[in-house]
Amino acid sequence: MRTSFTPLRRADLDLLSRWLGTAHVEQWWPGPNDLVSIERKYGPLLDGVDPTRAFICHVDGHPIGFVQAYRLADEPTWRATITAAIGNVEAAGIDYFIGEVDFVGRGLGSRMIGDFVATVWDMYGESSCIVVAVQQGNAASWRALERATFARRWAGHLDSDDPSDQGPAFVYVLERPRP
Question: Listing from the earlier edge strand, what are the strands of the sheet with 62-71?
Answer without folding.
Answer: 3-7, 53-59, 62-71, 91-98, 129-135, 168-175, 151-157
